[in-house]
Design brief:
- It is globular, with a radius of gyration of 22 Å.
- By secondary structure, it is of the alpha/beta class.
- The strands form three sheets. Strands 1, 2, 4, 5, 6, 7, 10, 11 and 12 form a nine-stranded mixed sheet that branches.
- Helix 5 packs parallel to helix 8.
- The termini are far apart.
- The chain contains 16 helices and 16 strands.
- The chain is 35% helix and 18% strand.
Length: 465
């Protein structure tokens, strides 16, 4: 028995064909979905990467573990929390990861007998690197029961797909560098620009067309799809495909200019919290199954353990998905509670019909304190109903407050602790960049003009000559 658990970082569900996207970004992932079960309404309860993966491997939401903030220096996962790779190792599985989350926090290396670090000279990691490291390990351990975690980063910024993948997603004859095109202006004059200038925009060249950047994201997914096919072909070659439970999931999605978010994964909107989850297990999971019920990241841990008849840890927030996979249950969650604390700090609730969001610190964005969207009539979350439906707002506020109290008990809210002791992690990153230009956060946010930074850069280059 083998389990391969694959994190497809920054993969937005609605950008896959099997989730309804009209462009051919994911022909092979779509095929895998047809060979197993696809969860149509799967959500990341905690975002982004650091907190998402912590919840996945503990089966607990961030409020339960205290890990609610991506990038906070004071955050630590206590060792008494049950950890999926550790459970698998104690249960007799050989455990391994091809990953670099260890560089975010040390606990991501817990439980592995083999931790193969993908860190390189650049911030981004090519999927071919992951496959090149994973395949020899699989070949060496193919006769063992193993648990293998693979982490692919290709759809994450910066979007740098192989050039041959781009044309099918960008209109032929269109010039992405056309000076007359001003569609990039909102991104360039955004409070988050100082961070993305160095980590994304400078690496793409003098692009002026926002549609081209989004096309690069699609091209990254298409490239990743080929990488997954390469891995699956290798499993077939090694004769272990039919003995392998394959789990594909996105840790969070990606906003592609929606809600004033330019190619990043913040905000509790569907673009970021609606993620793909697909499970293929030949001969066990019925092919072509699509589950419509609400599920979330923390359900993956108990689902894996339940499938193996391993006792579930006490007190986890996740629920096994096997009852609905086998048709023995009709529902898992009546609502999903959402949380983020990186670029901005907010919490929310996702039901079958509504999305409710409370924002405590908007960071570089302009956000109302409360947002309410009717997803049946407004799937893109464009019309805030907060003022029109005050009774429903009050109901959601009470529900969220009660849930927070239930999870915390007498403990201090870890989000409030981070905001008080450190502030938003990504605001600190922007402030560090701004300090090079003698700008304060308040000055910059009040009038974020790209020229303030770019002019300084050009002057420095001239002086250096």
């Amino acid at each position: 028995m083998k389990i391969i658990m694959i994190s497809l970082d920054t993969l937005r569900a609605k950008r896959l064909g099997c989730y309804g996207y009209e462009l051919s970004t994911s022909p092979y992932i779509d095929q895998i979905a047809k060979q197993g079960v696809l969860f149509e309404q799967a959500f990341a309860s905690d975002i982004p990467t650091e907190v998402a993966h912590t919840s996945i491997f503990t089966g607990k939401v961030g409020l339960s573990t205290g890990v609610v903030s991506h990038g906070a220096q004071t955050t630590y996962l206590q060792k008494e929390y049950d950890w999926l790779p550790t459970i698998m190792r104690k249960s007799g599985f050989t455990t391994a990861a091809v990953d670099n989350l260890y560089h975010l926090k040390e606990w991501f290396a817990r439980g592995y007998q083999y931790y193969i670090n993908t860190i390189g000279q650049t911030r981004w990691i090519d999927g071919k690197t992951v496959n090149a490291l994973a395949k020899p390990w699989i070949r060496e351990h193919k006769d063992e029961d193993f648990f293998l975690f693979l982490h692919y980063w290709d759809p994450h910024t910066p979007y740098l797909p192989p050039k041959q993948y781009v044309p099918q997603f960008y209109q032929q004859g269109r010039d992405p560098y056309d000076k007359a095109n001003k569609s990039m202006t909102p991104a360039f004059n955004h409070p988050a620009y100082p961070f993305f200038k160095y980590h994304h925009f400078d690496l793409l060249g003098d692009i002026t067309d926002a549609n081209y950047v989004s096309a690069l994201y699609d091209a990254e997914i298409r490239y990743l799809d080929d990488i997954i096919k390469e891995l699956d072909d290798f499993l077939i070659q090694q004769g272990i495909k039919d003995d392998t439970m394959l789990i594909l999931f996105g840790d969070h999605g990606e906003s592609l200019t929606e809600h004033d978010i330019y190619w990043d994964h913040c905000g509790l909107y569907e673009a970021t919290v609606h993620v793909p989850i697909i499970i293929r297990w030949p001969g066990v999971v019925k092919e072509g199954l699509r589950i419509k019920q609400l599920v979330q990241h923390v359900d993956l841990m108990p689902t894996i353990l339940d499938a193996l008849n391993i006792e579930l840890p006490k007190g986890i927030d996740g629920k096994s998905l096997w009852p609905i996979i086998e048709g023995k249950a009709n529902n898992v969650h009546s609502e999903i509670y959402l949380s983020e604390c990186a670029w901005q700090a907010s919490r929310g609730i996702r039901t079958d019909r509504y999305k409710y969001i409370e924002t405590y610190d908007p960071g570089p964005f302009t956000r109302p304190a409360f947002e309410l969207y009717d997803l049946l009539t407004d799937p893109n979350e464009e019309t805030n109903l907060a003022e029109l439906l005050p009774d429903k707002i009050d109901s959601f506020k009470r529900k969220l407050t009660a849930w927070i109290h239930c999870k915390l008990g007498e403990r201090e809210d870890p989000m409030k602790l981070v905001l008080r002791e450190e502030g938003l992690p990504f605001r600190k990153r922007i402030e560090k960049v701004l300090s090079q230009y003698d700008l304060t956060w308040d000055e910059w946010k009040a009038n974020p003009q790209r020229d303030k930074i770019d002019k300084h850069v050009k002057e420095n280059r001239f002086l250096q000559k």
